[in-house]
Amino acid sequence: MSKLESALYIVATPIGNLSDITLRALETLKNVDIIACEDTRNTQALLNHFQISKKLISLHQHNENQKKDLILSFVKEGKSVAYVSDAGTPCISDPGALLVNSFYEKNLKVIPIPGVSAITTAFSVSGILDNQFKFFGFLSNQKKKLKEELQAIFESNNLAILYESPHRIIEFLENIKVIFGSNHQIVIARELTKMFETIKRDTVDNILSYINENSNHKKGEFVVIILPSGIAPKKVKENDLKNALLITQDYLPTSQSVKLISTLFKKNKKEVYNLAIKKKND
Ligand code: SAM
Fold it and tell me: Is 173 a domain residue?
């Protein structure tokens, strides 16, 4: 019989410094019947460190769809199963979401055991006052698509948090320089919680100089935060407003059509009303 309530436990593990594991994570890993993990060698090393001996099953990006049914069947039998990814919180740019969804589909319990994630760790030391950020995880590894995605971030004026790997970091920052300008402010958080932890908030140009000055500076794992581009959202063209008014005025009285269009296009009501009247008199 399981020592823990029968459920799937989504357990966060450290992103470098093993002392960052939580007491609840250790208790859970000690007491579950089975641990499913992204890479059994990584998780075995973590368990060895904490002297935990447990049956491991691998569940990674490429077998999640098949393995989720096996894990479901264990919990249906009354067992408790933990899922851990290689580092940080599962399901954050890591496998696990398909597994969690399958539990909800079968009305089975999922319990979070929260802990470290690179995104919250980096943001906590960024000094950025704005609380409205958008997390993108990894952008595309195709050159053209990557540029398009960065351009879309520029145009959205979002505060963006991204993950990047060491072998792409220079190209990634070069692209940010071209799209946002060399003086744009960014934050890089490298090797968080590890020996060579480096956190820098500066212009793209200065950060590129820092990374290029020593080959060790581009090693390790990175979180990149891009401050908002500061550009105003794209202007709505007068013709688009006119066309929208033309369509809605066939179905709605002018006042309602103006209300709808000004809300949808985030435009001043009076301005839209004047346009509607002009259109009627044309
Ligand atoms: N699930 C993890 C989490 O909760 O943050 C993220 C896993 S994702 C596959 C790995 C990426 O997270 C790395 O390429 C890097 O961008 C970021 N990352 C993970 N550990 C990090 C660390 N110690 N320092 C900086 N970034 C890290």
Answer: yes
Q: Give the pLDDT of the chain (282 residues) as one tens digit per residue.
A: 458 999 999 999 999 999 999 999 999 999 999 999 999 999 999 999 999 999 999 999 999 999 999 999 999 999 999 999 999 999 999 999 999 999 999 999 999 999 999 999 999 999 999 889 999 999 999 999 999 999 999 999 999 999 999 899 999 999 999 999 999 999 999 999 999 999 999 999 999 999 999 999 999 999 999 999 988 666 677 888 888 888 888 888 888 888 888 877 767 788 888 888 876 666
Does one domain contain both 109 and 28? yes
Residue type, 63: N
185-190 vs 81-84, strand pairing mode? unpaired
Is 185 found in the same domain as 85? Answer: no
pTM for this model (two decimals): 0.84
Bridge partner residues of 224 (DSSP): 162, 188
Q: Report the CATH number at residue 102.
A: 3.40.1010.10
14 lines ligand 1 (CB under 6 A): no
Distance 129 CA to ligand 1 centre (A): 23
Would you say residue 51 lies in a domain? Answer: yes
193 lines ligand 1 (CB under 6 A): yes
Q: Is the Cβ atom of 64 under 6 angstroms away from ligand 1? A: no
Domain, as residue range, for 175: 119-226
Q: CB within 8 A of 277, min separation 6: which ones?
A: 254
